[in-house]
Amino acid sequence: MRPPLIIIGSHRSGTSATAQALGTMGLFLGARLQKEHAEPFWLADLHDEYLYEVGATWYAPQRLLDYLATEHGKKHCAAFLRLRVQGRGGYYGLWRNFGGFPHGALMALGWPLAWGWKEPRTTLFASIWAEIFPEARFLHVVRHPLDVAISLQRRELKALEAGDPPKPGLEDLDTCVALVGQYVQCGLEMAKLGDRYREIRFEDLQENPAEGLADLARFAGMSISKAKLERAVSQIDSKRRSRWQQLPDTTVAELMQAYPFAARFGYRTAVL
Fold first, then answer.
1. Selecting from 3.30.160, 3.40.50, 3.30.70, 1.10.10, what CATH number does the domain 5-242 have?
2. pTM
3. How would you write the chain as a 3-class SS string?
4. Which of 49, 112, 132, 248 lies 20 to 30 angstroms, CA to CA, from 83?
């Protein structure tokens, strides 16, 4: 079984579009997917189960991050995930729950299938997944932090209007910005993997999807046809524009103070 490509990044950062495009080019993303976001139900449930166990949630992950900062926490989390993925031997849990039929059977037989997943909570657990799959490649998708925060806030406000249970804090833009920072910081920790780690700004992918997707396919170890690349390019919405520029400059400057490493990605951190 070849190592997976693990796509990480904050919710609302462009990971769905990126994963769907890679899936069009031949990356197997799982047997049972939440279609809109190309996320395996099994992995989302698995992550939520562990978050609940340590008193955290995907939108309030600090207790998990504090726990994983301890040796005991790392070992406990690794044992939890490894048992569910590997079962009592091999990768039975992975083949059965992630792969399904026939892909799971082919993976079990050693077919060199290009596979991986996108599930934003994975970002919080990235260091543990790197232990379970020591040859995995990590693709870190980032987007302007204020755009991500605005999108998170708008989604929450729309959900509240529809009568959904609240996710405390997500109605506040400052909290959303801080949450984005937590996810990105977890993703940046994977840069220690060297050439098995790749960062991409979603804005750059929108600007030149053909070049960006071809490069990501090479990173994933996939050979693709021109026709597949063209179909994948059509899945990247190049017309979607930033919303953060509609905010007052003073608001931008204040919010970006919570995101000091934005400069690494070339994002604006102060009023020009």
1. 3.40.50
2. 0.92
3. CCCCEEEECCCCCCHHHHHHHHHHCCCECCCCEECCCCEEHHHHHHHHHHHHHCCCECCECHHHHHHHCCHHHHHHHHHHHHHHHHCCCCCHHHHHHHHHHHHHHHHHCCCCCCEEEECHHHHHHHHHHHHHCCCCEEEEEECCHHHHHHHHHHHHHHHHHCCCCCCCCCCCHHHHHHHHHHHHHHHHHHHHHHHHEEEEEHHHHHHCHHHHHHHHHHHCCCCCCHHHHHHHHCCCCCCCCCCHHHCCHHHHHHHHCCCHHHHHHCCCCCCC
4. 112
